Amino acid sequence: MKTNDESPFPKRLKEARKAKGLSQKQLGILAGMDQFAASARMNQYEKGVHSPDFKTVKALADILDVPTAYLYCIEDELASVIREWCL
Questions:
Q1: Which pLDDT tens digit goes with each residue over 4-23?
Q2: Which residues, 6+ apart, have CB-to-CB distance to 68 below 8 Å?
Q3: Distance between CA atoms of 46 and 55, rounded to whole angstroms?
Q4: Residue ranges of domains in the chain, CATH in brackets
Q5: Could you tell me if 47 and 6 are in contact, meaning their C-beta atoms sit under 8 angstroms apart?
Q6: Structural contact between residues 16 and 10, judged by C-beta atoms closer than 8 angstroms
Q7: Orientation angle between helical segments 76-86 and 9-20, nearest 10 degrees
Q8: Contact 10, 69 (CB under 8 A)
Q9: Contact 13, 70 (CB under 8 A)
């Protein structure tokens, strides 16, 4: 895991998780994380302390029903278009 380099990923992950109505722990568990570490790991991802590997990103995107492109989109307007495209 790497520290965040001002990636839009933390913000987009939190937006998508909240839109899906999941807690950090629920999302982490659904993505295959240990139930005792899921909340802490998701919190670190959302705060940009650590970044997940691409396999985990893909799992999170699948659970959240968003394309991986949404999670990395810098522009808010474009992110909104990408999200709407998937709904």
A1: 568 999 999 999 999 999 99
A2: 54, 57, 58, 61
A3: 17
A4: 9-86 (1.10.260.40)
A5: no
A6: no
A7: 40
A8: no
A9: no
> What burial class does residue 30 get, using C-beta atoms within 10 Å of its C-beta: 0-12 exposed, 13-18 middle, 19+ buried?
middle
Tokens 């940009």 sit at which residue? 48
**The two three-digit tokens of residue 8, written as one number:** 């839009």
DSSP label at residue 39 = H
Taking Cα atoms as reference points, which of 32, 16, 26 lies closest to residue 71? 16
Task: Please give the structure tokens belonging to residue 13.
Answer: 């992950």
Tens digits of per-residue pLDDT, 22-67? 999 999 999 999 999 999 999 999 999 999 999 999 999 999 999 9
